[in-house]
């Protein structure tokens, strides 16, 4: 399955789609959703940075305040976005520290990335409640 995912063409196309998606969500957050709390802006930027156009679609359908019907599925997508963005950030930072700086093996890398992913995911989920 990963043969096509690590193809340079696939990665190039994905970046070509992800960057405009990220720019669009940043523009929309600034222009139309400036009233969102700062933490939610970070959550949506990270979600779209990780997921490209898929994340943008999820933001557009569930994260904008302009949608009149705040259904349970919209709220659930917003809740998942907190954990998704935080866990992803923890994983990226953890791998960068463990492998890139300390050249740790698999066990150390797994422990550090799990710990950081859990802590940042929990923090971004708990943040709006405080």
TrEMBL record:
InterPro entries (UniProt xref): DUF4396
Stretch forming the signal peptide: none
Keywords, ordered alphabetically: Membrane, Transmembrane, Transmembrane helix
Q: Which residues form the DUF4396 domain?
A: 73-129
Q: Does the keyword Transmembrane apply?
A: yes
Q: Does the keyword Iron apply?
A: no
Residue intervals passing through the bilayer: 39-60, 81-104, 110-129
Coiled-coil segments on the chain, per record? none
The protein's name is DUF4396 domain-containing protein
Q: What is the organism of origin for this protein? A: Roseisalinus antarcticus
């Amino acid at each position: 399955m990963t043969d096509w995912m690590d193809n340079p063409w696939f990665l190039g196309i994905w970046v070509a789609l992800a960057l405009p998606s990220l720019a669009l969500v940043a523009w929309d957050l600034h222009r139309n959703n400036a009233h969102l709390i700062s933490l939610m802006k970070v959550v949506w930027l990270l979600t779209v940075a990780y997921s490209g156009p898929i994340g943008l679609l999820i933001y557009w359908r569930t994260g904008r305040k302009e949608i009149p019907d705040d259904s349970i599925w919209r709220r659930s997508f917003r809740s998942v976005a907190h954990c998704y963005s935080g866990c992803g950030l923890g994983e990226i930072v953890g791998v960068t520290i463990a492998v890139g700086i300390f050249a740790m093996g698999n066990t150390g890398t797994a422990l550090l990335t799990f710990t950081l992913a859990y802590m940042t995911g929990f923090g971004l989920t708990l943040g709006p409640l405080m």
